[in-house]
């Protein structure tokens, strides 16, 4: 977390789409300077060389934060579509400068989970993932599973080959106790009936307990952004999914 | 053999190299990765001058991941409806103003521009 007031000016930061040392780089809307979050400094533009001021923040579990800060406010996750991006989301234009060519196989402002693997790419539209919390798929030589959290609008993708064996996952239906206990998304593999955490890829109980799935790098992005960088990009097609989704 | 004849003889070789370079650039562009370099210089007024070369990789267009500029907040009770006990949050407390930002939700936006306890901050993930 950083202070936005720098040198007497209050800056607002957006996502530049660039990486330095594998960490996303911010840009400020006031001067278009680029800021490396990893290094804590501006690397290009009017503010080049200017350091970011880090501030104390706590990374913890919700229950723990609420207990110690009972009056806390919480960032509204359900109101995502009502924020100032609402008009941006529904508008025809996309991106800061607009676009010259549109790949309209999906809505420009639709969210996809984008996967890049071994020179291949696939975009998983959120509209398909909404109904499929656990999705088995294959890209190139890699068998994978997409775990999607509809409420948080986030997804993780794991390699579903463990010890040379390909596992087929299904979501574990939440019981009333699960809802009360609010346990993380869970899944079970058909081959061994081991219970896995969808949030961490760890096997919790069963024959494969202790194993951990390898996470594959994926981004949640607007479709226009993905299509811009990967023209003609492959889009997940539910009818082609090997395990029927 | 004369120099001119040597060069003429090697022309096909140069053409193949040039074509290879063009194709390599096209493939790199198609893969969506553009690499540039910046040189970061330390502030000479405060430290010995150091130069450091940094590689910047462009993965997505600007705003391909939407940061949040106008965050809305709910009470702790309503937050408990949206978050599970074990969900990770980033917690911030400034001047008695306490706020929690769900990490899973943050990962879809990367940056939240907020003002907490009167202080403008950027919550990043």
Question: Can you offer a commentary on this structure?
Answer:
- The complex is a heterodimer of chains A (245) and B (125).
- With 245 residues, chain A is mainly β.
- Chain A is built from five helices and 22 strands.
- Chain A has helices spanning 62-68, 86-90, 126-129, 176-181, 223-229; strands at residues 2-3, 5-6, 9-10, 13-20, 23-28, 34-36, 41-44, 58-61, 73-75, 111-117, 120-125, 134-139, 142-149, 154-159, 161-162, 165-166, 169-171, 186-189, 195-197, 203-205, 214-216, 218-222.
- A four-stranded antiparallel beta sheet of chain A has the order 4-5-6-7, with no helix packed on it.
- In chain A, β13 (142-149) and β14 form a beta hairpin.
- Residues 79-100 and 179-183 of chain A have low confidence and may be disordered.
- With 125 residues, chain B is of the alpha+beta class.
- In chain B, 31% of the residues lie in helices and 34% in strands.
- Chain B has three helices and seven strands; from the N terminus they run αβββαββαββ.
- Chain B has helices at residues 3-30, 76-82, 103-106, and strands at 34-41, 51-58, 73-74, 88-94, 97-102, 111-116, 119-124.
- In chain B, the strands form three sheets. Chain B has a two-stranded antiparallel ribbon with strand order 1-2.
- In chain B, β6 and β7 (119-124) form a beta hairpin.
- Chain B is elongated.
- At the A-B interface, β1, β4, β5, β7 and β8 of A face β1, β2, β3, α2 and β4 of B.
List the topology elements.
The complex is a heterodimer of chains A (245) and B (125).
Chain A: E1 2-3, E2 5-6, E3 9-10, E4 13-20, E5 23-28, E6 34-36, E7 41-44, E8 58-61, H1 62-68, E9 73-75, H2 86-90, E10 111-117, E11 120-125, H3 126-129, E12 134-139, E13 142-149, E14 154-159, E15 161-162, E16 165-166, E17 169-171, H4 176-181, E18 186-189, E19 195-197, E20 203-205, E21 214-216, E22 218-222, H5 223-229
Chain B: H1 3-30, E1 34-41, E2 51-58, E3 73-74, H2 76-82, E4 88-94, E5 97-102, H3 103-106, E6 111-116, E7 119-124
Antiparallel strand pairs in B: 1-2, 4-5, 6-7
